[in-house]
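Hi P.,

Sorry for the delay on this. The queue was packed all week, but I finally got your sequence through. Input first:
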Amino acid sequence: MDKKLVIVESPAKAKTINSYLGTDFVVQASFGHVRDLPASKIGVDVEKDFEPSYIILPKAKKNVSALKKLAVNASEIYLATDLDREGEAIAWHVVYALGLKPDNKKLKRITFDEITKSAIQEAVKNPRQINMKLVDAQQARRIVDRLVGYNLSPLLWKKVFKGLSAGRVQSVAVRLIVEREREIEAFKPDEYWSIAAILEKEKIKFEANLAFEDGKRIEKLAIKDEKQAKQVIGQLEKGDYVVDKIEHKQEVRNPYAPFTTSTMQQEAANVLGFSAKQTMRLAQNLYEAGLITYMRTDSVNLAQSAVKSIHEYIVKKYGEDHLAKGGRIYKTKTKRAQEAHEAIRPSDVSKTVDSVTGLDAREAKLYDLIWRRAVASQMKEAVLDIMDVKTLNGAYGFMSRGQSIAFKGFLELYPQKITIVTLPNLKEGEKVNLVELKDEQHFTQPPARYSEATLIKALEEKGIGRPSTYAPIISTVQDRGYVVKESGRLKPEQVGMVVNDLLVKNFPDVVDYGFTADIEDQLDAIAEGEAKWQKVVKDFYVPFAKGLAEKFDKIEKLDMDEKLDEKCPDCGKNLVLKNSRHGRFIGCTGFPDCKFTRNYLTPQKQAQMDSATDQIKDRKCPDCKGSLRIVSGRFGPFIGCSNYPKCKHIEKIKKEVKEEDGQTAQIDPKSN
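Then the structure:
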């Protein structure tokens, strides 16, 4: 009897699904994309209604041949790729790679939010045809991005230097980062002072902040310098401090909605320190292991069956009083969000992180975060007891706030930073003792550079990109050398600023936030059958191509070389710091007659190399007694043995830190 063939993207997903289906099924992986536009040429015929020329990817040829053999004898072929547009497009490409047509009766498209036995079996019972609206939306995105990249990149090569690239969304992300940097550079800090009184009743001290004068609120920048602060303090040292008004109230804190792709990436960055790319890789592993629902989603909706299971778990674990009455229903704010899809949640709420085996430490941390967020979303709100106290001294008014937790609610499971402040038992009209007056100098701060989390939030708020694109965007702008991460924040490199300025000046639509968001809306419209993909591509491309043709020869070549106060050791001419697709390097202005070049090290890398040199001084390889050397690897320099490959001894370069006494100490990264 011929078996039924199930095709998924990854081997891990295939392994999990295979365990849920009987011996009548064979589950095989496509190993991701099998067809794409060619790398060597544009692959889009703009004269023939933007007809794409797809090829089978070289890396996929062997696997496609194996799938073809299985497909020939299969009684049915289930296309079980992911449920989003990209997954739909992969299924469609698989069909053509196998030499079939979408209307072949053997073909059945199945999707599922989670890889569980019940979900897989239910999907097999309810197959459908490939949704060409989703395929067309993905095709339109791919073609528009290809037209932008393949037309703008050569311009950047000619006007800046070879190896640069532009992208429809990546260039907008770079613009956000560059504009934030310019805000920081232009920022001028304002000085201001704050004043607080340390008051006391019955030996219990509490702090009160100066907030009013003559009944009017004192603005943040009102006290501009030390002289003014001292004048106010001089007045506050006189007179009595009298409790004027006490207000008791309760403040409610509601739980957050379960994770979308965006909020998961943001929270994983803030709480766990994971990059967006790392978070998506770990979430993919959890999904393929059957532990969470699909991780690319902009919906906060939960299936009723999941809500029921979560409610039962809350009642059993925390009691009826911790369950939100009537359940909580969350509405997605994102335009055109796929409410039919679910938020990211555990597939089985009874599987806490402690009961799941086979996860590495980072997978376990992310799973626990997802689990807690989903369960907490259905718990009762937390209640805080608030006590606001207004204390007067003549014309001046001070405010104090006491805060305690009256009912933890969801905070039992998903803690937040809440400062507990206990005030003494105060009464209106009574005097309190002044212990101390404190004045403190402050300066207004510039806006912070974007972190990965805040950049994702900004992109989402502006409607730029979609759940599947955030991590690749952030990874790409760093891989291209446009942006570097410093202390967890994204800083534009010089080349990123230069390319951004060129694009903003000459192709404002391409990097316009509203224009880019509008294209996303049009792609959504294609997915919903409200627009034709060819028209959307044409409406974008025609004015873009016209502008490119008009601008290409008018844009002057930019000189990115940075002159150095150093002469070439070979010919004596000046050396310059140059840029290339492989990074920055030092070269001679006498090129091509003089071909002298030297590696360029940033001050940070130079310090690292100097530290490494000191660490190998007078040392031999502990394994073979050979010489140690500094090796430049994919992830930075490290210490290795000169007898490699016979001896594979390696060491991390120890980081140097400044001790409090100013002395330099070394710490082994492995000890942190």
